Every structure is written in structure tokens, then in C-alpha cells.
Amino acid sequence: MKSRIFHWLIIAAAVVAVGYFFVYDGFWVWVVENTDVPANKMVVLIAKTGKEMPSGQIIAEPGQKGVLLEPLGPGRHFINPFLYERQIKDQLVIKGGEIGVVISKFGKELPHGEFLAGTGDRGIQREVLMPGTYRLNPYAYDIKIVKMIEVDPGYVGVVTARSGKNASSQLAEPGERGVQKAVLQPGLYALNPEVYSVERVEIGYNQITMAHGGKLPATQTSGQEANRGSKLAAAIGESFLHQNAAMGQSTLGVLPAVTFPSSDGFPITIDVTLLWQLLPQDAPSVYARYGNIHKIEQNILIPQINSTARIKGSTFGAVDFIVGDKREEFQRAFQETIETTLTAKKLQVDLALVQDTLVPETISGPIQDARVAIEWNTTNTEKTKTEAKKADLDEMTGRIKQIEQVVEFETQRLEGNIKANQEKQVNEIGAQTRLLVADLTRQTAMIRADIKRKLGGAEAKVVEMKGKAEGDGYKLQVQAAGGATEFTNFQFAKELPEKIRLSLIYAGPGTLWTDLDKADKIAPLGVLQQTQPQPKK
């Protein structure tokens, strides 16, 4: 009985094992729980079991039912569908030149008066996301993608911090709230637009032109027409203002001319061009005090031009703006006052020019007629002088031609003389050269003959001295040998070969040995005599 029970237990265990491997691992895990997350996707998990979250909480903590904070990235995951709900979401992609402003939907409430969230706080995060790919739970965060702050060449960025300590002066230091002392140079900046606002301020030259209608294309004729043209100029200038107000920069069109009464009560209209610039180091303080370039022009520069022109211009009479040095005096006073006033406001003025002046016809007409008459008279006088000068010119032209002919004749004569002199000099030089060559040839022949003569005498002397030296040598050798006979024998013996064979054959008594009475001094002959047979006595 026990063995049967044990047998059935083994069978049951085998069935359970086979069921586990084939049903659970083979089907449940790889079919039911298998979650394949594609690239650039993520899976957000929502727990179906656990304790309920408190009211107002949106992200579940461990052991709670609800949305889990951390999503799972691309790849294969095994998730029990009875325990978790699976939601496939797109990952966050931030492109180049963009940043992501993160708004946390969960965490602690911010203190009163604070709008930037720290770690674990709910609200706008101070740090931004740089370009890249991020797995951020859309239930936990809102992401606002914005472009980076770009400061173009020719501009600086004036930064205003919206959070931090109160600034101790007009311009704020890092960590203080307000307009920052340091400006942004041209470039890209990853600044949180919720934390910092950046005003692009144009540096370098800016221009304001205030002109009457004659500068637009009507023709200047009178002050009344100038006034009518001023309305047209105002309309055009207004359109430019509206187009550029949104940018906060200055590209002003032609603004209405400045009109003011002269000291004698006549209306004067002047055209003014102001060339000015804002230096980079002054941009923060000027912006903090007056605003952007558009506000500076509208609230500072244009009112200053009008007020300066009216104050200085009202001290001059109407005629002063037409003739005399008074007009230049007005220009100097206008320029100096504008420069002094705006320099105190840290605005640099490079040019404040009064281009044109309109005076009423009742004043300018008679003056212009008188000036025209004067100019006409001056013109006629100049014409008379011109005709006289023309006659003088004709006379001088004839004289010049005559002088040119004389000069040409003299030139030809001088050229002939010069040519003849040159040929004469060439011939003389040739003759002298030939004479010198002949003389050198003669001297060379004499030198060569003398050399040959001296060489012949030297050779004869050498032969003579050589013969004398040889004779003296033989004389010394004979004296050394003891006489001529001994020297001759010595030379004879010296010329004999070192190994010589001498055979003497006896032929009997005769005359051969009669002359050898002295041969006994020679060893071989002495021996020979001893070997001869002696005659019988």
C-alpha cells in the first residue's frame, strides 16, 4: 500500500514539474508576461494591488496601488498582467538647440512666495534638460520644450533673474534677483526661461532721422507743405514703430521733423539725424533704468532731440537759420547739448547733425531772391573773366606752339652735333686702339727674342759647366786611383761581369808573353807564368 502511494506521489510530482516548465515557463512567462518595448519607447507600470494612495497623491510608493515613478526602457520585460497594467509611451527626445523645462506634478508644496521647485518638490524645476533622449514618466512630469537663448552678433543679452536674494544695488550679482551685472555675449545659452528672462540689446551704431516731407519724396517748397509732409512722415514712422515694437529693437523709419518758433516768432522746421550707440558694459544699467532700445528711443532720445532743438533754436532769429555764422553756431550748440545730456545717461552720441532748415517763405523768399541776384551778378562777372582768360589762353597756346617748333629745331640740331661728335670720338678711339695694339705687338716680339737669347746663353753655359764638372770628376777619380794606368785598370775591372770565366791556352814560347813583363802584378797572369815550363839551361 505504501509503495503504491509513493508511486502516485512520484507521478504527481512529475506532472507538476512538467506543467510548471511547459505551462508556466513556456506559455505564461513567454506569452502572457512577455512585454517587448521597442527603441525610443518606454513602458509605464500601474500597480493593481496594494494600499490605496492618500488623496492628492498621483505617484505610488512601494506597496501602494497606482502609477509607479520609474518607467522601463526598451527591451524585453516579463510583467504579470494581474499585478501591473502596462502602458507603452514615447521617450522624450530633445533636439539640438532646444532645452526641456521640467514641471514636476508630485512632491511637496512650495513655500509661500517661491515658484522654483527643488528635489522632491512640486512645481517648475530650476535645472533644464539638455539635448538628448529621456525616460520621464508623463504622469509625474510635464516637459515644455523651448529653444535655447540665442544672442546674435551685434547684440548682447541682458539677463534678468526672477528668483534669488534681493539685489543690494541697481544691478544684481549672481544669486540675486533683478537685472544681472554681467551680459551674455553672442552665442547659445541653455537658460531656463522660467528662471531668467533675456533681452537682446543691439550694440553698435543706431540712427534716428527726423525729417520733413521733402525727404520722402515730395519737394521742399514752403513751411506749410513741410507741415503737410510731416504728417506723411509721421505715418511712415509709426508703421516702422509698430513693426519693430514686438522685437524691442530699433529700426525706426523717418520720423516727423522738429518744428519750433524762432526768437522773432516765425515757425522753423529742421531735419535732424542722430547717430548713437550703446556700449556693451553699459547695457545692463541702461536697460534697468530705461528699458529696451525701442523704449530708449521713444522715451529718451526723441524727446531730447525735440526739447534741445526748441530750447536752443528759440534763441535765434529766423534770418539766422538762412545766412551768416549763426546757423553754424546753432549746430554746435545742438551737438554739444545732445552729447552732454545723453552721456550722463550712458548713451554715446557720435553725431547730432542738423541736415536741413525750413524758414517761412515770407522770410526766405526775399533773402533767396537777393542771394539769387547776387549769384547771377557773380556769375556774369565770372563769365567775363572767363572770356578774358580764354583769350589769354589762346594767345599762350600760340606761343607754346611756336616755342615747341623752336625746341624741335634745336633738338634736331643738337642731335646732329651729338651724333657727329660721337662718330669722331669713336674713330679716334679706334685709331688709338690700333696704335696701342701695334706697340704691344712690337714689345711682345722684343721680349720673346730676349727670352730666346737668354735661354740659348743659359743652355751653352749649362753644357760648359756640365763638361767642366765631368772633367773635374774624372781628374779626381784618376788622382784617387794613383794614376791614369791604375784608373784605366780599375775601370776595366769594374766593367767586367761579376762572374767571368777566363781560359788561357799555352801556345809555346813566342812574342805573346814578351809584352807581359808587367803582368806579374795581375794575379791571374802571375799564376799563369808560374805554370809555364822553364827552358833547359
In short:
46% of the residues lie in helices and 23% in strands.
Q: For the terminal residues, how far apart are their CA atoms?
A: 185 Å
Q: What does the overall shape look like?
A: flat
CATH architecture of the largest domain: 2-Layer Sandwich
Q: Stretches where pLDDT falls below 50 for ≥5 residues?
A: 214-251, 511-516, 518-532
The percent range for helix content is 40-55%
The oligomeric state is single chain
User: How many domains in all?
Assistant: 5
Major sheet characteristics: 5 strands, mixed
Judged by helices, strands and strand pairing, the structural class is alpha+beta
At the fold tier of CATH, the topology name of the largest domain is Tetrahydropterin Synthase, Chain A
Whole-angstrom Rg:
66 Å
What portion of residues belong to β-strands?
A: 15-25%
Mean of pLDDT: 79
CATH homologous superfamily heading of the largest domain:
Band 7 domain
| CATH class call of the largest domain | Alpha Beta
How large is the count of helical segments?
8
